[in-house]
Structure formats: C-alpha cells, structure tokens
Specification:
Strand content of chain A: 25-35%
Shape of chain A: globular
Number of domains of chain A: 1
Helix content of chain A: 25-40%
Helix content of chain B: 40-55%
Largest sheet of chain A: 6 strands, mixed
Order of helices and strands of chain B: HHHEEHEEEHEHEHEEEHEEHEHHHHHH
Number of domains of chain B: 2
Number of helices of chain B: 15
Distance between the termini of chain B: 31 Å
Oligomer: heterodimer
Shape of chain B: elongated
Mean pLDDT of chain B: 90
CATH topology of chain A: Rossmann fold
Number of strands of chain A: 10
Order of helices and strands of chain A: EEEHEEHEHHHEHEHEE
Low-confidence stretches of chain B: none
Strand order of the largest sheet of chain A: 6-7-8-3-9-10
Radius of gyration of chain A: 17 Å
Chain lengths: 229, 385
C-alpha cells in the first residue's frame, strides 16, 4: 500500500480581477496517493488548472497548505520552488510548449541543464527518455518537423527525463485526434504502471479520464464527486 | 558554458532580424575602430611627447621663423640640457600628392634630443660627415624602396636653392628606426647647414627649436626663462612642453577627439535603440517559452541571465566582426598613409575598450527585456497560450 504523496488542506485561491475578488478554489481538501493516476474533470472555470498549478508549485494558495512528498510548497520562496520543481515535477501541456529552436533531443535535455550532469550524460539520459516514448529516431528533428502526437511525446520525454515523482498534465490530448490521443494516454498509463509515476491529469474528455485510476470532478472551486476506474 | 547552446540557438530564432541587428552593430564598431585609429594617429605626437622636451617657436605663429642665433642663447638658460633646431621643408619625392615630413637639422644635437631614434654608428658617422646626406626612416624606406647610398631628388614646394631650382639632391647615409612602437619613422632628416647655405632666401632662420631640460618638474619655469630672454626682441618666442605644442598643433585641424566622441555617441545611441528593440521583440514573442523554462525549474535570475547573455552575444558577434574589419582595413590603409598619417592602427587600448563597450551595450540593450523575463509570472504567461 502506497502512502500519500500530495496532501492539500483547506486550500483557497482568490484572484483580484479589477475591483472584484474571484475565488477559484474554496476550502478544498485533497490527498493523492503515490503511484496514483488521477484525472481532474470539470467545466471551464471550475479551478482544474489552478489546482494543477498549486500542485506543481507554479502558484501559491491564498490560504491553506500544500504538501508534496512531505515538503510544504505554500511556504517556499520562489527560488526554492523552482529548484523543487526541477527535482520533483514534470509538466506536460496541451500545446506541448517545446522550444522551436531546439531539436527534440535538446528539448528533452533542457531540465538536465539544471543538474550537475556533463554533456555526454545529459545526451545519454535524453536519448533514454526519447526511447521510452518511442521517438529515438526523431532525436535530431525540430518540433516543426514532428506531428502533434510526436511533439507531445517529446514533451513527455522532457517531463520524465529528470525522473520526477509527479507528472502534471494539463489537457495533454486536447490538441490531438482520437487515435493519437489514445496513444499518448496509453503512454501515460504505462509511465504510471511501469515506472511508478504519480500522474495528475486535467481533462475535459471522459474517454481520456477512463485511462486514470481515479477521477475527481471539480465544480466552482470545490470537489464534487469521485469515481474510481 | 552549458547554457551557451541555448543562448546561441535563441538568438537565431528570427534569422533575418538577428542578421540585421548584427550588421548594424558591425557598422557601429567598424566606425568605432576606424575613428579611434584616426584619432590616435592624429594624437600620435601628443601621446608620445616627452616630458623632458620643450618646443620654442615664434610667439605669433609657427609659420614665422626664429633666428638661428637663438640656439646658443637658449642653450645658456639654466636647466637646459641641449637644443636642436629644425625647419619645415615641405617637399615630396616624385609624386606631389605623396608628401611626407623632411626637416633640416643639426645632426648631432637632433639625435641627442631624440634618443628614441636608432641609427647604427657607421651610418651616423657617414651622415655627420657628409654635407648633402640625409637619413630616412624605416617607414619611408618601406614605401619608396630606398637604400643606403641612393641619391634622391626631393622637390620642395617652399624652398628654392641658389641655382633657382626647387629640387634638392640628397645621398641617403642611413636608415633609422625608433624604439617607441607608437612613434613614426616616416621622416627624412638632413643637414641644416646644407639647407641654409643652399636656400635662396630667409637664410639664418629656423622654424623651431626642440629643447631638452634636466628636470621636467621645472618645465614651466624654464620655458618662461627662455621666452623672457627674447621678450624685447623683434622675434619674441613662445615655449611650451612638447605635449602642449603637439596639442595646439592638432587643434588647428579642429577638436578631432571631440568630433570622434560625438559621432560615436550618436552611433552607439542608435545601436542601443536598435538592439534594445530587437531584444524587447524577442522576449515579447516568446513569453510562453520563457515561462516553460521557469516551469522546468529555471530560477528568475537564470532566465534573466539567459536574455542578457543573448543581448551581449549579439553585440559581441557584430562588434568583433566590426572591429576585425576595421583592423583589416587599417592594415591596408596604413601602408598608403604611412608618410602623411603615421601610426594609423588599432591600438590594444582601443580593442579592449571596444570589447568592454560591446559588453556594456549588450547589458544596456538587454536589461529591460531581461527584467521583464525575470518578473514574468508563469501562470499568467502560460494562460496566454
């Protein structure tokens, strides 16, 4: 039985929009076990991406506590959060967000620039990550030379190259056709199952959510319901 | 260094824009290199001036002669070590457009007051003992291909000799060098006696005196003593340090240093605007990419450093090519202008200053875009994509 990797207590997040205060998350409590594959669903504006940002240390709660792997993210400085992200989290975005001036190999190597690894070791690890996502033959290709599915695979390779505990995916298949989306989701499933990655995936798509082991529904900043696959 | 690849690839994100920016930086530093070299060449006399040397000229103007008889009187002033006389000859060899300096002098005293001129002893003896002989500098030999023993006709545009001709014949007795790398040897020196006895008019006068003194700290006092001696004579004098004399001579052409500085200030201001605009556009276009770097764990200062490094790299790229081009052009030009504008070269000081300027301009042009990148909020930047 795995322990809890993520513990969120009484999380609220409020944004100021002009003179108006908008509460995106309201006193939310959530625990995510290690090696879980959680899908977060909900309508637009329900707070899915905000929650993902809080889990990844990209944002801080207005109130409440965020602990990931026993570390209190809510009280960390910006610099400490950056270093924590580099060690513990991999991000996968809807639009891949690869650097267009770098080849697939160099894009995957990016997170490793923040380590003390030498150039040969960086290249070796990037090649391994690319082979895990099945793109070892596209290492020298630039993002513009790849299909959407291939770009997302490169993004996944970049997310896993530093061997993080937690993968955070924001609509990872939102820009892909069904067939390609299924391939990407199967890959995420394999990373969860075979490589013990804890995955939190935001999605609008119920079919995509079926690949997860749990699905949580967010509505107006609170957790509405939970389903188990 | 591990970030160099990322910085290098980032600057070529928009190739045409980067090439145009690099070209404008190139032109700016080409101009900087050329103007610095010209300024230095013009200032050559000032920079290499010896603190122990004074120059005495007519009080009204350098064009007016002073009597040759003053030499002994100046020599007698306390603190004066040696006095050499000199005169403008205004001649050319074969090509009227290719003018260079020729001075009639007292050979022995002239070499004493200019110890930096190096002439082998046998050539020195030959020059001292041969009345119509001359010594020529290495720079002239390189231009005209002269050798010792050659007889060369020099056409003076000022001095007619007693036979009614403006062509004066000289035998080359020696070739001199200088031990000061900044000094010029595009110069010809010959006997004042040969010149004075041979010229058809203005006999017994000289153009100026060069005076060496035993204590540079007493330069003003000695200069004053020299001038006081001739205060009530028809030919009053004005004595100043060699540096002050060179400076005032230079000012006849205008304040070249100021002109150069103004041109370069305008050029660099424009370059800062061009490069600053390029960097601002570059950052604006890839806010989401910079946010992704932060998401991956790059700290704010690191992202700022990457943007600044890009700006400095663009400056260095254009600047170094520009300075290199200036150096090449100057090497070619220096051969053509060795006689009229000696010392036309890019000095080490100008090179180091140039590189520092590149780095500084890179920082100034990149600082605001870099600050923007540093302050970028990941959530807001990613929300825009």
């Amino acid at each position: 039985m795995s322990g809890d990797l993520v513990v969120l207590r009484d999380i609220s997040r409020t944004y100021q929009k002009g003179k108006e205060r908008v509460e995106v998350l309201h006193k939310l409590n959530l625990t995510i076990a290690e090696c879980d594959f959680l899908a977060l669903m909900g309508p637009s504006g329900s707070g899915k991406t905000t929650l993902l940002n809080l889990l990844g240390g990209l944002d801080k709660p207005t109130s409440g506590t965020v602990e990931v792997g026993g570390e209190a993210l809510h009280s960390m400085s910006s610099g400490a959060l950056s270093k924590w992200r580099a060690r513990h989290v991999g991000f996968i975005f809807q639009f891949y967000n690869l650097l267009p001036v770098l080849t697939a190999q160099k894009n995957v190597e990016l997170p490793l620039l923040l380590t003390n690894l030498g150039s040969k070791e960086r290249a070796k690890r990037a090649a391994t990550a690319l082979s895990i996502v099945g793109l070892e033959d596209r290492a020298k290709h630039y993002p513009r030379e790849l299909s959407g599915g291939q770009e997302q695979r490169v993004a996944i390779a970049r997310a896993i190259v530093s061997d993080p505990t937690l993968l955070l995916c924001d609509e990872p298949t939102g820009d892909l056709d069904r067939e390609t989306a299924d391939e990407i989701l199967a890959l995420l499933q394999a990373l969860n199952r075979d490589h013990n990655k804890t995955i939190v995936m935001v999605t609008h798509d119920a079919i995509s959510a079926d690949y997860a082991t749990h699905t949580l529904h967010l509505d107006k900043g609170t957790l509405a319901a939970e389903a188990t696959a | 260094m591990k970030y160099f690849y990322l910085v290098w690839k980032s600057i070529w994100r928009k190739k045409v824009r980067t090439i145009l920016t690099v070209l404008s930086v190139l032109v700016a530093f080409l101009l900087y290199g050329l103007l610095s070299a010209f300024n230095q060449a013009f200032r050559g006399g000032v920079d290499i001036a010896n603190a122990s040397r004074l120059v005495t000229i007519d009080k009204i103007s350098l064009i007016n002669p002073v009597p040759a008889s003053y030499q002994q009187k100046i020599r007698a002033v306390p603190g004066v070590k040696q006095v050499a006389m000199s005169n403008w000859f205004g001649g050319y060899y074969q090509d009227k457009k290719a003018q260079f300096a020729q001075f009639p002098v007292n050979p022995e005293t002239y070499l004493e007051v200019y110890p930096e001129l190096i002439l082998p002893d046998d050539q020195k003896e030959k020059w001292f003992s041969t009345r119509d002989s001359a010594i020529v500098g290495r720079d002239l030999v390189n231009i005209y291909g002269w050798k010792i023993g050659d007889r060369i006709p020099i056409h003076s545009e000022i001095w007619t000799n007693e036979s009614g001709s403006q062509v004066w014949d000289f035998e080359i007795a020696g070739i001199f060098d200088t031990d000061d790398p900044r000094g010029s040897t595009a110069l010809m020196l010959f006997h004042y006696k040969y010149f004075d006895e041979g010229r058809a008019f203005a006999k017994g006068n000289v153009g100026w005196y060069v005076v060496t003194i035993d204590d540079p700290g007493r330069a003003a006092e000695i200069a004053n003593a020299i001038d006081t001696q001739f205060a009530n004579s028809p030919n009053q004098t004005k004595t100043s340090t060699e540096a002050a004399f060179a400076e005032s001579f230079l000012k006849q052409f205008g304040n070249i240093a100021l002109i150069v500085r103004l041109i370069l200030t305008a050029v660099f201001f424009t370059i800062l605007l061009v490069a600053g605009n390029t960097m601002a556009q570059s950052v604006r276009e890839r806010l989401s990419e910079l946010a992704v770097l932060k998401t991956l764990g790059f700290v704010n200062g690191g992202v700022m450093g990457i943007v600044l490094a890009e700006s400095i790299l663009v400056m260095l790229l254009g600047g170094l090519i520009g300075l290199g081009s200036a150096w090449l052009l100057l090497v070619m030009l220096a051969k053509q202008t060795a006689a009229v504008l000696p010392g036309l070269m890019l000095s080490n000081e100008a090179l180091v200053t140039g590189v520092l300027l590149m780095v500084l301009a890179g920082i100034v042009a990149g600082v605001f875009p870099a600050l923007r990148a540093m302050r970028l909020t990941i959530v807001e930047a990613l929300a825009r994509t």
